[in-house]
Amino acid sequence: MSRISGRPAISSEHVYGLSLRVARWRAGAPGTPLLFLNGIGADLVAAAPLLAQIHGREVWTLDMPGVGGSPDALLPYGAPTIAAVVMEIADRLGHKAIDVAGFSWGGALAQQIAIQFPGRVRRLVLMATTPVMGAPGIGWAAMFDDDMLASGLKIQTATPLGIAYQSAAMAGWSSIGFLSGLKQLLTLVLMGEQDGVIPACYGEMLAAQIDGALLEMVPGSHLFPFTHAAAISARISAFLDQKAVRSPKSAQQAAA
After folding, report:
1. Which of 16, 78, 183, 191 is deepest in the core (most CB within 10 A)?
2. How many domains does the chain fold into?
3. Nearest 10 degrees: CA dihedral of 51, 157, 110, 13?
4. Cα separation of 54 and 163, whole Å?
5. pTM tops 0.85, yes or no
């Protein structure tokens, strides 16, 4: 029996010299597939309880190099490169249009994909993330707050090199100056009420930069997608299923 919640189909994709473990829940289901991008050092097993509860569509994710079931990369990589790798896998899966949800480090990568591949992303969900990696106020020591410790979750399964390369990929990265171009991209920003790793002000920055983005505060700290998986999966599903409504600002710009 699989130890991964929801028993996803597991495969290995070889792209640009990388070998990456991929998991697919409800593979081939109708509708727009959802790609989930996890936080630094976290593998697909950690995300599985959340992803297995997002019904009505295919959901897929992958282990980054040096994380979980993916071996280390031979060389460092940058954000644009790993974004291209992810989209190459999407192409191989037959996903021309996708929804993307990203958590923490994965939320930064989700922004990179939306910016780098305009028109490929239908909807965007950004959780506990930031438009500026390594900015003042991001407190990684808070990863060990009471809420996270009480959860008993084992999040990081990465090698030292895997962590180093993921950190280097986003060193100095920022989406500020580019997010304003995502005018037609429906976006949901979720931030934890007690998040001491990436405070709510970074979610406010994201919502201010992306026209029409919805910003919501949710219970929990940095790991809220996992400690509150049932509620978060339901909120993601509702957002992906809702009919598109143009923001007043977009409507005014179109009429001008």
Report:
1. 191
2. 1
3. -80
4. 28
5. yes
Q: Is residue 125 part of a domain?
A: yes
In a domain, 4, yes or no: no
Structure tokens that stand for 38 in this block: 């996890």
- Is 82 inside any structural domain? yes
CB 181 within 8 A of CB 138: no
Q: Residue 217: give the domain boundaries.
A: 9-255
Report the distance separating Cα 6 and Cα 135, nearest Å: 36
Q: Is residue 1 part of a domain?
A: no
Residues 177 and 216: their CA atoms lie apart, in Å, by 23
* 165 neighbors 66 (Cβ within 8 angstroms): yes
Beta-strand relationship, 59-62 and 18-25 = antiparallel
The one-digit pLDDT tens for each residue of the chain (256 residues) are 347 888 999 999 999 999 999 999 999 999 999 999 999 999 999 999 999 999 999 999 999 999 999 999 999 999 999 999 999 999 999 999 999 999 999 999 999 999 999 999 999 999 999 999 976 555 555 555 566 666 655 666 789 999 999 999 999 999 999 999 998 899 999 999 999 889 999 999 999 999 999 999 999 999 999 999 999 999 999 999 998 765 545 444 444 4
Token output for 249:
């600002």
Task: Give the separation between CA 94 and CA 105, rounded to whole angstroms.
Answer: 25
CATH number for the domain spanning 94: value is 3.40.50.1820
Residues with a known catalytic role: 104
Phi-psi sector, 29: left (phi>0), alpha (psi -120 to 50), beta? beta
